Amino acid sequence: MPSIPHLPQIYDQAVPVLLALTANWSHHPAPGSTAPPYRPAHRPLNSHRRATMLSTLNTLAPPHAHYDSCPWTQALAHAWHAVRNRGSNPKEAAHGLWPHYVHRVRTWLTAETPPTERAAQLAAAHAQLCATLPTLAARRRIT
Questions:
Q1: Rounded to 5 degrees, what angle do the CA atoms 62, 13, 44 make?
Q2: Residue-wise pLDDT tens digits, 92-116
Q3: pTM above 0.85?
Q4: Vertex 33: Cα angle to 29 and 37 (nearest 5)
Q5: Residue 10, H or E segment
């Protein structure tokens, strides 16, 4: 059985901690930095298992998700900056990020990306996040 039913518990335990730790991290991604090599599992996901996972995800989504089609990496960068620059509570920032996370997981499952292309997709998201973080920091300094 996939870990989808446990996703809220894993998320609630991990994401606030990660936001708090990385917000206090002094390292800033260098422009043009590359993502580490990703090695996701290369197992195919059959249609029955995907349907079961999506059905479970639908029950985990907030009733009024307030998802605004903001790209995942931008939503994550906003949560990170809220904790780092505005002193927001990491649990509250993670809570606001949850609808975006559920949407991201749903998108990942429905994209039917071939296993051989998953690492490239993760690396592209990582690069987009690294590009978004400095942009948001610069915008905050200007305004």
A1: 70
A2: 999 989 988 888 888 888 887 777 7
A3: no
A4: 110
A5: helix 7-23
Q: Specify the residue for token string 């260098």.
A: 30
What whole-number distance in Å separates Cα of residue 55 and Cα of residue 24?
37
> What is each CA distance from 80 to 28, 72, 114, in whole angstroms?
12, 12, 30
Alpha-carbon distance 18 to 125, whole Å? 17
From CA 86, how far away is CA 73, in angstroms rounded? 19
Tokens 């039913």 sit on residue: 5
* CA 67 to each of CA 5, 103, 104: distance values in angstroms, whole numbers, following the listed order: 21, 8, 11
Residue 32 CA to residue 42 CA, distance in Å, equals 28
